[in-house]
């Protein structure tokens, strides 16, 4: 090595250059970080289009299906970013699951639900809202379905960006309705179905909130405000876990295994009752062991609800994947059917590659964009702990079962968010009632000032207004957007 290489001036220059490179790398990393998720999303969307093109062949119909697959992949990503948050948010908000653990569980069970049991509601999304025979030709039907898919994806993307959890089912319904009206007139729409969906805007959150509040009242009165909380928990937590197991078993029997065997409502209830009792018998000794040595205070109760809450989140994800994958691949399956068979009638069969786009797209969307909505729903509406979050999860399953029995259309998004509001509003009412009772016992106690009463509000009203507004305008907004997109596609293709 020469003496020049040891010159301090050269070392100083080298340090400056390395410092500049290091600063440039940090700046590049800072700039590029926000682009990682959109970049990976774009790769997945293009891969979905390429998969469709290779599967269907490089023909005119194959290229149309490839474009539809791109739209379907985009929709699946948005479902993962927005809808799945409602299943995971209670467990994350209650600190029973970390964000990473929630995303991992949701990705596994959402994909499993979509691939194992996700085909039974696709035909409803594809054909139940607008009569396919109302389309003048298969080409017009295909354009309408593509417009519906793209408009729903754009609307859900916008809702996620502003932080509003909306129903992806209602987004697709609005998209199909708008494209149907634009292509075939108002007579093509099944207005009876649309009226039932509009009714679900009120029914879903109200039922979810009432059921969740009812379970929280039970937990407070039978466990939390008992003198011996741990003894009460040993008695009632296994019962609650058994009810949860029975509810999810009934739900999955009704919704999850239709492709394997048809089960009527009475049989599903019997299956749920049997598995609920078996779960109660299994859980009793487990809870008894967990309760040994716990202090007689509320914080100790959280330990007993942690595992049931994680299990309920997994079940919710499986059920969500089984049902809501249709929102991404229902119109896509209809497009594939119309392109291949040249007809818009008959049974829509779902190719496995179509289901894979829906399943993996939901998981990727959750991983890349889901944390924002998980934080909003899980911690910014009202404060959750494992007991309250357990009530939300249990409410979601029971409300869907009750709605199925009554024949009412409900949204899993609306149920979960309504249950969270129900829990928070019930806590406000319960706290106020206890204050009134205490003042009756001690009449000299001064009434709290108005400002103090406002600070005791446990639900953020601003989120309530934002979410309610987003729910109400989802169907008409998606419909108008879809109609405009259809007219643009029609002008380009026609």
Automatic annotation (TrEMBL):
Alphabetical list of Pfam families matching this protein: PHO4
Membrane topology: Multi-pass membrane protein
UniProt keyword annotations, A-Z: Membrane, Phosphate transport, Transmembrane, Transmembrane helix, Transport
Annotated GO MF terms: phosphate transmembrane transporter activity
GO biological process, one term: phosphate ion transmembrane transport
InterPro entries named in the record: Phos_transporter
Record GO cellular component, one term: membrane
Transmembrane segments: 35-54, 60-77, 89-109, 140-160, 172-192, 198-219, 231-253, 265-283, 304-322, 350-369, 389-408, 414-430, 464-489
Protein's cellular compartments: Membrane
Coiled-coil features, chain-numbered ranges: none
Family: Belongs to the inorganic phosphate transporter (PiT) (TC 2.A.20) family.
Name recorded for this polypeptide: Phosphate transporter
Source species of the chain: Pseudoruegeria aquimaris
